[in-house]
Amino acid sequence: MKTQNIASHKNPLGGSIEIIKQTFTSAQDKPVKRVSFVAGLHGDELEGVYLCHRIIATLRQLKATRPQAFRGEIHVYPAVNPAALGSATRLWPFFSVDMNRKMGDKNVASLPAEFARSLIEDLQASSDIVVDFHASNLHLKELPQIRIIEEFDKKLIPLAALCNMDVVWVHPSAPVFESTLGYNLNRKKIATLVVETGICLRIHQDYCEQIFQGMIHLLRQTGVLDLADPSPEIKQPLLVHPKQVALVQAGHAGLFVSDVALGTQVQKGDALGTIVDAVRGEVLETVTFPAEGLLFTLREQPVTYQGAPLARIALKETL
Ligand SMILES: [Zn+2]
Q1: Pairwise pLDDT comparison (283 vs 15), residue with the higher score
Q2: Structure confidence at residue 14 (pLDDT)
Q3: How far is the CA of 39 from the centre of ligand 1 (A)?
Q4: What is the pLDDT of residues 130-152, one digit of tens each?
Q5: Shortest CA distance to 168 belongs to which of 198, 128, 208, 196?
Q6: Strands 245-249, 191-198: parallel, antiparallel or unpaired by DSSP?
Q7: What is the distance in A from the centroid of ligand 1 to the CA of 48?
Q8: Distance of CA 268 from the midpoint of ligand 1 (Å)
């Protein structure tokens, strides 16, 4: 394993802020493909950081025991927003900048923008496929899924189907995506999958294990890893377009309480939970599912306001 530092800045209070890249080279002169894994663009999203640990540990052991298995090249960038990760915040502290809204930006007058540029340039120079790991916010918990902007769907759906996800969600483009890593790399013809899973500031080992298996499967199916043993079965994700996603919203401000598990196949009319007024001891609302499908987003943070998202259901259609 080769360790490189692709961006560095001396911290005036001591130490330095660095983006580290771990590389596993190919046993062949010309790698069949180059795959990169990126995590921690948002500093409070830790699922991907842990996933990178799993990937590095596994590949390191494989490199030591079966170096010929590496037909392609693999790069892992486990913590690309170190300042934000250090304080467990989504944004780069002090600047309050979202590093994943600085990609493709010509203006590099700030440190976060400079780091964003170093990262995207390095990924561009060393990748054919990129996987960018994200977690949800504090309010909503997500089943392992890949989100694809419509204009890139033809190239990305076949790759996303290899990744052991529950859901692949194709959605229209919007200006807000134009400064993200995924959008900018896809525009430059580097296939980039954006993974969303779990919730921020937590690690769900079961989801991470599922995605880890998916990443190994992706590496095998793209010819990057050549392993003789049979590939384990992976999930076939539900492919959904915006019209196949039902959003359930709160009708009242209160506390949302639910005992339905994320990942449940629900029926129309099934109970999702209640919204209660704790001060008056009243149930304000009993919330039911509006359709049949897979519960793939669920509110974890109980405080609601009118219109607060409570759940999303993927209506059925297999890839
Ligand atoms: Zn994120």
Answers
A1: 283
A2: 84
A3: 9
A4: 999 999 999 999 999 999 999 99
A5: 196
A6: unpaired
A7: 10
A8: 31
Q: Which two tokens stand for residue 199?
A: 């919730």
Confidence band (pLDDT; 50, 70, 90) for 94? confident
Ligand 1 center–CA 254 separation, angstroms: 27
Domains and CATH numbers, the chain: 2-238 (3.40.630.10), 242-314 (2.40.50.100)
Look at residues 72, 74, 42 and name the one whose alpha carbon lies nearest to residue 60.
74
- Cα 227 to ligand 1 centroid, rounded to whole Å: 32
Q: Which residues pair with 39 in a beta bridge?
A: 133
pLDDT at 108 over 70: no
Find the 133 Cα to ligand 1 centroid distance in Å: 7
The whole-number pLDDT of residue 182 equals 97
Q: How many angstroms does the Cα of residue 230 sit away from the middle of ligand 1?
A: 33
Give the distance (Å) from ligand 1 centre to CA of residue 249. Answer: 22
C-alpha 81 to ligand 1 mean position (Å): 11
Residue 21 and residue 77 in contact, taking contact as beta carbons nearer than 8 Å: yes
Which residues neighbour 26 within 8 Å (Cβ) at sequence distance 6 or greater?
A: 32, 70, 71, 72, 73
Asked if residue 317 has pLDDT above 60, the reply is no
For 92, half-sphere exposure in the C-beta direction (CA atoms, 13 angstrom radius) is: 20
Helix (H/G/I), strand (E/B), else coil: 87: helix
Residue 106 has pLDDT above 80, yes or no: no
CA of 287 from ligand 1 middle (Å) equals 29
CA of 218 relative to ligand 1 center, distance in Å:
21
pLDDT at position 11, please?
Answer: 83
